[in-house]
Amino acid sequence: MADRLAVTRRMFIASTALAMPVTAMAQITGKEVYRDPKAPVQDRVRDLLSRMTLEEKAAQMRSMAYTKASFLEGDDFSPEKAMKVFQNGIGQIGSPSDTNGTKRYIKDAYRAAGETIDLINAIQRHLVEHTRLGIPAIFHEETAHGLKARDATIFPVPLGLGSTWDPALVQQAFELAGREARMRGATVALSPVLDLARDPRFGRVEEFFGEDPYLVSQMGIASVRGQQGTRPLAADKVFTTLKHFIHGSPEGGLNTAPADMSERTLRENFLVPFEQVIKKADPAIIMPSYNEIGGVPSHANFELLQRTGRERLGFRGAYFSDYGGVTNLVTQHHMAANDDEAAVLALHAGVDAELPEGHSYMRLPELVRAGRIPEASLDAAVGRILALKFEAGLFENPYVNKARALRQVNAPASKALARKVAQKSLILLKNDGILPLDPAAPRKIAVIGPNAVEALFGGYSSVNAQAVGILAGVKAAAGKGITIEHAEGVQIVKPDEMGQHLPGRGARYADPAENAARIAQAVEVAKRSDVILLVVGDVPEITREAINAGAPGDRNSLGLFGDQDTLVEAMIGTGKPIVALLINGRPLTVTRLADKANALVEGWYLGQEGGNAFADMLFGKVNPGGKLPVTFPRSVGDLPMYYNQHPSAKTRKRYVEGKPTPLFPFGYGLSYTTFEISAPRLAKSAIAMGETAMVEVDVTNSGSRTGDEVVQLYVRDDVSSVPRPLLELRGFERVTLKPGEKRTVQFRLDPDSLAFWNIDMQYVVEPGTFTIHAGSSSDKLKSVKLTVA
């Protein structure tokens, strides 16, 4: 314990060192140093800390999110209540855009943009003008795939963003998300999620960019650069929060379950995105995960947060707890008997702020007075939090420009970007030539399925009144000669009283007898059609973060949920051509649908412009070019099925039942045109240790339509001191080519691209041969040999 506290003290001293004593500075400037915008941030932090009581320090380490009613009178800010609630100030307010903690939440979960801004300005005005030190608050919001606020722009879920294989486009999306968040008063964004989607049973995989460390790293870098930009923080940017350190693959795919793994697995896979994003994008905040890593919950894991995060990965920012992560040490992990013990464990591990309410950290003053926590530990944590506030300019400009923010709401350019991202995320998994449909050719289309009407957004989403569902998008794009008829087919779960499917609500499963009647009606509609557009998949109530026993989101199977398979069989039985669209949040074992449908498209949750984007693809206005960021297994019994497994895992795939190959492999996706990708060419077939290998790959559009191809580069260490994956993604580029056009794509394989943790757990490049692969997916590759001497 003494060693741990010593490390904490050293980190605090390093982060708040002064060029001269504060008292001397105050005499020179003639005023409080912390109020001087020209003073260095370190000096301002040190000065303000010297003036704070223990209670004021503890308040900066706390948040309020679910207890908004404590400072509201109805929906309005109450100065009288605030005098009691904010007596010592507050560090941050969580999700001001939602109505959590108020009676209004039952019917309306989100405030309008103007209402949110009025609330934020009122809170800031009170804190600045009516607390002793006038410290403004941080406001944090969710931005996993757009700001989680009413009428903010909603992009495809992270799996969809990963499916674009286009970091530049993803960065544009997050630039917009960050700008919308900051313009509405947020300073901190609780994204990106850098976990790896290795177990699709886990309901939270919809929050992940993919299964591969390199792909996730590139998307994470794009997210941080888009939202946060370069430091110091600009006026239209927000601090980003890397999540979740470290989820791993929880046992059974169950949220918060232990993720037991070797140190080698941790370093080779799950730490990689965090390391790369820390190194290349300088994120401000990291959020520990709920679960155990190495048998120790992350919120009490000194080795993870300090030794690994700070000392080895070089993280310099603040650790903010996940919601309830500290109190879970009492209620879930049984490491602490009460909130006092939980606070001691979390602070010693390095958790700077407790979200959402700070129930344990409100006890910090008493714990310091009792000698259980040194005040220096509070100073280190508060110093990092105050540094964020100074860097963001909150002391100089704590208020939000309402008129400017409202001009951002549903702006045409924002909707256009959401549509473009959705277009780029669509993945064509199968096509026998039925697609694209001619929008001018007369035909009858039966739009069937539970996900055809409502625009489904997935988790960490709000509402947008201008969102376009699949049916609406297809109707808007269809020519005059096309007749469209719709039938629900089945319900997956019953919608709430507002007719919506929201991830935060408990699921009311559909009645099979009622679904049987819906299927019969759908059959009649399908029989009258020329082609069936079958829209099936998930709804947020069954694929989500498992909140509690009444709101599960993890699964023990991966087939279409409920009565959807019966609907699929009924549609097959009509003998009509089927174009199937999956709207979902996890890979599904849709072997029957993949076999019998004439075309199959993976959409994930497509965001607010999903209906328009899909219609653009359906009728050939755009050419699909997305690629799978995850592997699709044939059966849940095939798991784990991620592509970059060790050689010995391949023999394990010879089950009595089924095939040893995935239903659809990582990196896979078709187009309306065809491409030829050459074998990779090396500038030099042999390089010295420490050199960079230059690789060129030619890609040619050999078809008749303009389209996108993603050129993928993989590496295999042929013989190594410990087993290495069969393939490791080390580069990719999405290119757009006209018919007959050829382009040469260049890749750099630096030493990091070839290095690994050897048998002695040293990060090295071993001499020998490497196979360099290039192609359009992980199962369609050409190769060349590289020698490292």
TrEMBL record:
SUPFAM superfamilies found in the cross-reference section: (Trans)glycosidases, Beta-D-glucan exohydrolase, C-terminal domain
A biological-process GO annotation: glucan catabolic process
A Pfam family assignment: Fn3-like
SMART domains to which the protein is assigned, alphabetical: Fn3_like
Enzyme category, top tier: hydrolase
Secretion signal, residue range per the UniProt entry: 1-26
Residue span, Fibronectin type III-like domain: 709-778
E.C. numbers: 3.2.1.21
GO molecular function annotations of the record: beta-glucosidase activity
Reactions the enzyme catalyzes: Hydrolysis of terminal, non-reducing beta-D-glucosyl residues with release of beta-D-glucose
InterPro entries, A to Z: Cellulose_Degrad_GH3, Fn3-like, GH, Glyco_hydro_3_C, Glyco_hydro_3_C_sf, Glyco_hydro_3_N, Glyco_hydro_3_N_sf, Ig-like_fold
Keywords per UniProt: Glycosidase, Hydrolase, Signal
The family this protein is said to belong to: Belongs to the glycosyl hydrolase 3 family.
Protein name, entry field: beta-glucosidase
Organism ancestry: Bacteria, Pseudomonadati, Pseudomonadota, Alphaproteobacteria, Sphingomonadales
